[in-house]
Protein 1
Amino acid sequence: MTNNNTYNFLLSDLKNLKGVGTKTSNLLKRKKINSIFDLLWKLPRSYTDRSISSKIKDLKIGNTQTLNIIPFKYNFPRVRNLPNRVFCKDETGHIDCIFFNSYEGYIRKILPLNKEITISGKISFYKNKYQITNPQYISEDASFVKNKHNKYSLTEGISENVYNRIISQILSKLPKLYEWHNQVVLEKFNHISWNKAILELHKPENIGKYQADFYKRLAYDEILSSYLVHSDIRKKIKKIKKEKKKFNFDHQKKILSKIGFKLTNDQKKTLGEINNDLISNQKMFRLLQGDVGSGKTIVALLSAYNVVKSGFQVVFMAPTEILAQQHYKLAHKIFDNIKIDILSSKSEYKNKKRITKEILENKIDILFGTHSVFQNKIIFKNLGLIIIDEQHKFGVNQRKKLSDKGGRNCDVLLMSATPIPRTLTMTIYGDMDLSIIKEKPKYRKEVKTYSKLESKIEDVIKFVKKEINKENQIFWVCPLIEESKKIDHSSAIKKFEYLNKIFPNKVALLHGKTDSEEKESILNKFLKNEFKILVSTTVIEVGIDFPNANVIVIENANKFGLSQLHQLRGRVGRGLKEASCILMFKSSLTENAKKRLKILKDTTDGFKVSEEDMKIRGYGDILGFKQSGIKIFRLADPVLNSDLFELAEKEIRFMEKNKVDTTKYKILMKLYDQADILNDIV
């Protein structure tokens, strides 16, 4: 196979490598290493320097050392389970090579008698004698052994030696690909080529050099490839011509006047962006991202109303039935003269049948519901807008399929209450146009945030009693469902039992193991004020407005990330009353914990919180859904390489504005992004 200037070698099957059979290939594929290119990112974690030879008299027990020895005698016991032994020497002393599970013929071959051999391995001392058990390297060619050897986080069944041989083989066959970057970009990485960068990456002495030119070049390749894919999707969607929506903005003014609600500047700006998309002849594919309590729903509903007044239907999907019901009730309250309905898995058969018929006959203007609204048998007569709430788990492929499902004239609006740091926005949602609402409505009360030692729980109980006497409700959040012997976290079940003794018949329990039907029932009862305290795990993070809940207590707050704490805090303060968030700790706070607490106290801006969270914990953990839609970078890191993300965004915007031909980036996109969606693009 030729590979001087083609990427086909890199994308080929692992079995094309010498020494990689079916067994090794399957072991690697279990670790999602499916191609030769994937193996290049099996990076060494450290290395062992075997370049310096030692004499037997100078050996150090416990160290990995290289030495030149002469085997002079074999000992192959006929008793099972006893090791084979080779007696060896140099001019300064004796050492035994011990072999378990090795055949006599193999040992005779690699360690022939009376011939100098270079070996390397970990030194031990047994019965007044040096020995090496199962030497890692043995060769007549000293230049092979006397080298720096990479150490890997090993895949079960594959030795370090095998990894090194496979990687060395790939590096020796690396193609010299043509350069896809322009000179301005290359200058930032000292004009280092992709090929050279890969070779440098695998040199043992370069482990961990994140700011080196070779490392930054490869990180930038990853970032740009992701941005290019998103850019191509955007361009493809923009080419879809649709029927323009035509509506009278007076309808919108009447609705706002009716509910006595003044939009924030961010809401006005966002609504304007959405309306401009709706009345254009280009298909809308937009994400409405807003912090908790910023008022995304009213913007989405006003957009839906405008679409209905244009003669089209709207479908509004929520992740849970209770949230769908909440949206439905709000729409019912503010809309006149339009037909709305709700559909879920719990809807009666007769009702489902009626809705299915009326949707097809264009007798329903807005249909609310859960995923049930996207069943194949639900066919819209004239669908003009799809709205999906809290669907941050949609990846690129799912979003594109969603866009296709609606048809040519159907616009798409997704909503997310999870603030994303600036450096990740293009990475996650780069295929979509983005609207952001940061500003909170003036009537929203700021949630006061406090810290409290768990030993002072009686103080918290007194505070909770006062709030209950005022007819307020409380969330009490615990990290675990049941008591763990290994981890000293609070248990939701144990806390429920504790609080139920103090507040009998006023406490409910909700956690991840609660089935969906029971969960809906508990939340509905809490919403109706049938319970005063809801003890819960983090399942309450996203979703429903509980206007009467104005206190949230979070136990072991130091075990949560900043973004998670902010999301939890956003569950209260949704009504007109003052709200409180009490963060409880088991012991005195560390300096890091104090820093995190200060961030929460200083700001209620979820975007600022997420930025700080990313700096503390890294980008892989802050979102909680990295497996869905977020490109998992091999090298690039939004914290360490924020400048590269900015550079890539600038470059993409330049390409789009100047309609730059991206054909030369085909290799880059093929190598770094194997998403199925590329089949439609390149």
Protein 2
Amino acid sequence: MEKIINILKSPFLHKNRLIILDSLLVLWVIYVLFPLLGVGFISDDSYNSQIAGRNLVDGLSFWEDLIIEVKAWLIEAGRFSPFAWFYTKGLYSLQPSSYIVKSITLAIIVLNVLFYTKIVHFITKSRRLSYICGFMVPLLFQFRMWHDPIIGFTFLIPMLSMFLFASLLVLTKYLENNEAKTISLFIFLHVISLCTYELSYIFIVFYILIVLFSPSKKNWGKPIILSIFTTIAHFFLILFFREADSSTYPGSNINFDFEMIFSSFLIQVASAFPLSWKIASGPAHESLSKVIYSVLIIFAIFSFFIASQIYKIKYQLTKINSSNKLLIFSLALLLLPAVPVALTGHQAELVNAGYGYGYIVVFMQYFGAVAFFLIIVNYLKKISFYILLPIHKLAYLTLAFFIIFSVGYFTRLENSFVAEEVNKFYKYPRDLLDKSIDSGILNHLSADSLLIRNERYPSDHHWFYSMKAGRKINTCGLNIALEFPDCVKIKEEKNDIYGLAYFLSSDYKTGSVFVAKLDKILLVEDIPISLKFNNYKVYNSRTGELSKITSNKTYDLLKIADTEVGTTTLDYDIRDYEIDEIPYRFKDFFSREGGKESYLRWSPGDSTMLIENSTGKSLKKILSLILIRPNSKFQHASVSITHTIPNSRGFLQTNRYDILGQEEIEIVLNLKPGINYLNFKSDSHHIDNGDPRNIVFGIGNYKLNDF
């Protein structure tokens, strides 16, 4: 122990303590946000990362694409953010991996925390307090499955925050030295902030605060006047060029409904506080009972350390002293970013989403919430002193430890959970498709070939195929009404139409991709009933092998396309995809959801099942399915199922059901030769569960069985 104490008191550690503290702070931020590195391209990034494919398809250069994008946003939406588009398009034109982009994001966040620590020290003159704030702010970083500034949007707000903190540090230097190069750097940072995101309009408030907090106010006029001038110039530039009276982008539209403003403002501010995402309705959350011992131990050690450091602060955060400057600064960071969100079209999104949600500006607000979090923890010291005088130190350390540990540990678990959940939709399907194209699964397609596929995930966008193949790939979306089947009809004469379908395994991390030349496409009222093929290629990501299969059997690509998640990659049975004697498809249902064993389709209230009987004779079949009406304040749903055929008088049969929850049903159908229609209809109210789709009922595990 004596040796350890001597090491801690060594001149080397004392001399380099700030470097050591900064290094520890960097390592701490990296550890807390480590799940970020495994997140794929989500939200806007999922499409922006395909820019190279877009430019290849459209024959655009980087600069042509950049000018088109900046001009369109300026004229149509009243937004001028050329630097944001410059680095976004420049970065993604290089086709970086998601790991590289997230590493850059993490590096920018690290700089944010370091700069913030220096600013807190400038404001409070307390080295201990500044590092306490620096070490605590990462505990407030929450990943959300909704407009998240950390895991999505290509580090837009972290970069903007970095510009803010950097410009504030430069401003403190200018107030001290009055050097021309310093004021030039300050204005450069402000201008580049304006060209990144409109939230930078509020930066002037922080500049004024730094001037007020500075011991020297001799040189304040030039930076404040120049920053106001450049901000006004940016604003009038937008007013001059914007042509549209209204914009489809909600952030460009102002709404002065006081109730909406107040509600959205409170929701946005609340989102900055610890564990706020845990109260969000809708998405699943990680269980509070889950234990990861390595994470638990590290956060326990940290929590005790930081609690003890807060106890050592020589003055109360709530008393009138220099720390009140920190509270004012923090209040501005917490509240001001929420104002433009509450005033614009984003307010409706927030109010509909509810508490726990927060728009991307919440990243900046995290830094503002730290001080208030510290007040709560520090206030416990005062309470414990007066109430538990004999054991107040022990009581305080216990309570402070519990609060800090709970926030840090459970936030880290939730972030890991959110990262895994978003990857199921964004990363894993993209990785599978990426690897299959790299294996050469599309190499045999010619420039005239047409590739039909479902556009289920963002990586199914046509830009992605061309980007990965390094050449233009003509695609057609099965589930895109404006595209299909016109694209098929154009190519039918050339008989050069291929289909691609894939599914993920039960762990979502592996899967199989099928590509086949389609021998026959059966359409009924422009609805695909079957996509027949014999020979095919299949890529299995678990083995990394691309196989070419020649078969005398006939398969239906639609069956593969309907399989979202399989059991295991190696367990699929190609016989499951053989063409049915009586094929059937769906009209006006939403896309199939679920895996091989359990699946469903939602209906908006009026949907149809199309059944083809090509045998030339009537057949009796049994349709088994589960009718689903999720528990709802609108109670039961009355559903009628009517069997009709074209050119017939009336209907063959109608079955009526009153559903709440789930009910297994069987319907005996006398299928006439040709196309049979099975109409599912309900006049009941749609379910108000936050889903943007108007869902009234669903059908699950539907099958046609022999009578």
Protein 3
Amino acid sequence: MLSLLIRQKVITATIISCILIVILATTAYILAADRVGREYISPKISKSFADIFQLQLQQDPENIFALQSLSNSMVQHYKVQEIAFYNIKNERVIYACSNTCVHNLPDSFNKKVINNGSENNPDRHIFNLQSRTNTLSTDKDNQTSSYLGTKPLKLVIIPQNGLAKFFYADTVSTALVIVSLSTLLLFFLYNCIRFWQRSPYKRLLTTIEEIQSQPDDNIRFDLNDADTAKLCEALNTLIIINDDRKMTLMKEKEKAENARIRAIRLSNETRTINEKLASEITIRRSVETQLTHTQSILDSIIDSMPSALFTLDNNGFIIQCNQQAADWLDCERHPLVGKQLFNYIKELTDFNDLIRQSLAENSVKKIERLKLSLPIGSFPADITLYPLKDNNLNGLVIRIDDISQRQKIEEVIMQTEKMKSVGGLAAGMAHEINNPLGAILQGIQNIKRRIQIENDKNKEIAKSYDLDLSSMIGYLEQRQIIKFLNNIQDAGQRAASIVSNMLQFSRGTQKQLSPTHIKDLIERTLNLARADLELKNIEIQLANIDESLMFHCIPSELEQVILNLLQNSAQALSHYQPNHPDKNWVPHINLSATQDNKYTYINVKDNGPGIAKDVRRRIFEPFFTTKDIGAGTGLGLSVSYFIITAHHNGQLDIESKPGEGACFTLKIPNQPLLPK
């Protein structure tokens, strides 16, 4: 539709409108005719049929067969669907139906049923017929008539309300003729209007062609035609405006040419200046790039330092800080600028005089092993004060170093050196004690063997002296001499065990390391200690350990170490339980194991009383114990420490706070290393 010309669109729209109007008019005519037939003609025809039946009843009221034949003739030859007669008892006595009916009339008379539930139905007509004599009644069996009284008959007629077929055919034909004539008339009128409309526009096109072909500025459009007068006037005005624009354009071209000449001259001057500026900008960019690169390197170096750096002015306000400083204070770097450092690190307040002295003397000052309490936690630190040697800026740089790891290393070194010294001493003492201790144990065994009643040699000698061995044994037991001998033997065996541990502690031989599953090792050790732990009502909590984790160790020695740690924790928990304020407190020991690329970590952690700081420093020393006299030798943890450090090149660390339990950590290389 969009691709059609305007005249084509007009013709198409007009024809479609005419067709729609004719269709609507024809439909309205048919509906009106149908209504007239239904509401006027059909009642008249039904009344005529009722008059015929009334006439028949007047002539021969007892002839039911004549009424039936007349009804059949009407439904066959006239536009009647159904006919029914009802007697005084509302019984249907006569019925006739066309071939196309659907038997709507009932066997007994009911006005609402006949009218499809309504009081009046225009498609169904009910008449009361009077007979000359009595009302007709029919016996269905013998088809005989009888007189039942003076009552009228009811006649129901359902006519065929549809119009004749020729009516519809004639109506449609007439509509088509009207549409055809209307189309021809419209086409004729369109051509006339088109001719009248195109004449002025043809004159316009002729004038436009003249303007295009002839360079004459005096040609104008004709204003005499009323249809195009306004359009021609607008075109003439446009021509005048165009002429004015041509004059203006020529003047502007002259100005533009003059400006172009000036621009060329200025461009040459500008080019020279730009070349100089470009050279200066290149040099400046190079310098800025170098400065930026240098600043970036400096910032990266400062931020990558493990130390916290603060730059302060003379009044103690923060000018700059590195990322480590911000991380320790648990905040962003920007908000720290302009704030007092003493508000964040309270411990520096005690060294305010030292800071002023460093600024006044322009000398480096140092504060060692200061305990700091920061948002990330508490730790010892070394603090160094560096005055700024800049004429334009007065202040100082404060460097704070966390020495927690260094202190641990120093303690390990001191412990190692101490162990070496003690190990040499223990070896000498063990050799010196071993000989007389062996003689004592041997003497006790000889004494006990020579007082045995079962020994034949003893019997023989006792008989020679007329001595009763049973009486002698009774005397010894009565005087508790045998008990004293057993006590001496037990003490000697305990001393022998101490000497054996001392020798093992001092022995530096390296045994063969073998690959071992961590989980299997821990489970074997738990099996050894489980009975004792359960007897003391201590709960064992074993973390989920991957069965595939392996490392190199001496299994028997490592089992001994873990067993020593479990026994120490069990003893601490058993003594702590009666004094615990919480009666529902349950003692437990947690065992866990983890592994990274280099090391295996085995943790033994309890919820006991914890270990004081002064005790932790000496806990791995030989013969050092916090247990009661005779309850321990003080060598268990020392031997364990020696096994881990000397035989496995590992570490044995402890973390504990009073009241929060203790955690022993075994750090062992996954692969075998050379002895330390």
